[in-house]
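Changelog note: in this version the structure field was regenerated for every chain. One regenerated record is shown below for reference.
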Amino acid sequence: MSLVKVRKTGKKGLVFKALAGLELAFVALEIVGAGGVWTAQSATAGTLTIPLHPAAQVQKTSTVYRCSGAQELLDKLPKPFVSVTYLNAGAVSLAVLQVEGETQVFSNVIAASGARYTANRFEWWSKGDTAFFSEVGLEAAKPLTCEATHPASARHTR
């Protein structure tokens, strides 16, 4: 089970933390001042900073999905529901979800249709209320089909 916590930090903007299970690892995304810098931190992996356009508005959307398909892929996701947080700021688009018990930050890549994200060896592809989850190297297994269980909730920050 993951805990998602969002808090305002005055001039620094938004801090988002996702704590995975009993681990103390976290992902924090922060918008800093007028320069617009997005920082992702992990207790075990260091820090990643993504510069943003100063006018970029941050949108956070959370959606809960129920997935079906190959058991081999289902075993990699939380049960019975998968919670996905989408973070968008200008040209930066991320999807954050639990895979194999760890928080994964998926980055948006080019897609012919919908929004396609990749992290490590995994792919998350969403279009409307449907998303697909797959793993590179498991081409024999069809991607999981995941359906949103309720409308997404969006939050805009500046």
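Spot check on this record: Residues 1-38 have pLDDT under 50 and may be disordered. Residues 37 and 51 are 4 Å apart (CA to CA).
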